[in-house]
Amino acid sequence: MNILAIDSSGLSASVAVLSDEVIKAEFSVCNKLTHSETLMPMIDAVISSSGVALNEMDAVAVAEGPGSFTGLRIGAATAKGLAEAVHKPVIGIPTVDGLAQNMACHDGLIVPLMDARRNETYTGIYTFEGDRLKVLREQCAVPLEDILEDVNRRNTATVFLGDGIKVYKEQIEEKCVVPHLYAPASLRLQRASSVAVLAAQYFMNRRMTDPAAFAPVYLRVSQAERQGAAAVTPEEKRAMAAGHVPVQAAGDPTEDSNEK
Fold first, then answer.
1. Residue 112, strand partner residues
2. Distance, CA of 147 to CA of 12 (rounded, Å)
3. For the purposes of burial, counting CB atoms within 10 Å of the CB of 186, is it exposed (0-12), middle (13-18) or buried (19 or more)?
4. Of the candidates 199, 227, 246, 235, the residue with the CA atom closest to the CA atom of residue 1
5. In whole angstroms, what is the distance from residue 229 CA to residue 105 CA?
């Protein structure tokens, strides 16, 4: 099985090739360049280094969201385009699940924290049963206090990871009462190799989609949509509720989280 995996959901961009349970190549960057500038050159480099041609891939996997609105759109468009070109399926992997997979076989709870701005975090709660990731709380967008209360109730040693650590570490230290630690820099941010590992499991269970049908998972509306909804008059809202006026996003979504 050969899988090309892409994660452009956050600050870092990452691409990897998994072939017969081996990560043949992985390329990750976290710099000031935008994902639209870096992603395709990274894909070209990883495919060349891996020795697995694009037309030999069985699927193209991508972190489907949540995360950066711009990054998710870039990743989705890239994955769909490549998959369509070689007539292969797309496998969408929940971004927070992919982050949790970085801590494979960790003994305890795993809590990714992505800074979602507006005092919220994209997060979830996970553990491992053997070498398989188990979802205890599905990915969600909630205030930090919400997820810390859940962690405290579970009363189990916890590892935190994700770019949210930099933003929320002081609050975690203040409010998390269970033993806890933080993932090292090498495992803290999104990695396409983790997306690839989960995608291989999805592939075996035939959890994939036609490229044309794939769409990112945002978990919440964009700033532009919120502003557009606020600008709608009461009369227009009543007409929408009655089904007479189509609801459309007001322009291109403004970035809500760590955008690239």
1. 161
2. 24
3. exposed
4. 199
5. 44
Distance CA 83, CA 5 (A): 11
- CATH code of 103-188, in short, is 3.30.420.40
Stretch(es) of the chain classified as CATH 3.30.420.40:
2-96+190-213, 103-188
CA dist 53 and 197 (Å) reads: 19
Q: Which two tokens stand for residue 255?
A: 């970035």
Instruction: List the pLDDT tens digit at each of the 260 positions of the chain.
Output: 999 999 999 989 999 999 999 999 999 999 866 888 899 999 999 999 999 999 999 999 999 999 999 999 999 999 999 999 999 999 999 999 999 999 999 999 999 999 999 889 999 999 999 999 999 999 999 999 999 999 999 999 999 999 999 999 999 999 999 999 999 999 999 999 999 999 999 999 999 999 999 999 999 764 444 444 444 455 654 544 444 434 333 333 334 444 45
What percent of the chain is helix, strand and coil (3-state, nearest 5)?
A: 40, 25, 35
Cα 23 from Cα 222, distance rounded (Å): 35
pTM for the full predicted model? 0.86
Report how far residue 66's alpha carbon sits from residue 52's, in angstroms, rounded to the nearest whole number: 29
Considering the domain delimited by 2-96+190-213, tell me its CATH architecture: 2-Layer Sandwich (3.30)
Tell me which residue of 101, 127, 66 sits closest to 258, measured CA to CA: 66
